[in-house]
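All the exercises in this workshop are built on plain-text protein records. A record pairs a protein's sequence with a compact description of its fold. The structure tokens are whole numbers drawn from a learned vocabulary of backbone shapes. Once this layout is familiar, the rest of the handout is easier to follow. An example says more than a description, so a record of this kind follows.
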Amino acid sequence: MNENFPPLLNANNVKASVHMCEVLDLPKIHNRSGNITPIQGGIDIPFDIERVYYLYDMPSGETRGGHAHKNLYQLIVAVSGSFDVVLDDGKEQKTITLNRPNFGLYVTPYIWRELENFSSGAVLLVLASMKYDEMDYIRDYQEFLTTTNEL
């Protein structure tokens, strides 16, 4: 694993913080016929990739996300267009604008996230550290605040 990555949370870490969520510069291979950004779990990002999904055709003014995860790590990439990711650790908020396909936002567990301000034609790619598990989601903001205060 690359030592320049932000830390993964474990029993020795303190509470999750929006400051642990960082924009990672992903590899970009230039070619006159087009660029490519390969992403390898554990090499280019700080976790193994277990699931990939993407969002597209978001109506103007729509907001996505509105949840946190207990164990899941994510890398969020604007493959096309742009959008804002509002991160919240229960104490602080931070907004990150993603608009380049060779940059991805690393999001740790116990961070509430909202996705908003999608440009026309935006495509959002998510690389996730776990397969889908509904039990990993915290979908109620008050429950999220209670949970993060207990950690």
User: Anything to note?
Assistant: The mean pLDDT is 91. Residues 65 and 85 are 9 Å apart (CA to CA). The radius of gyration is 15 Å.
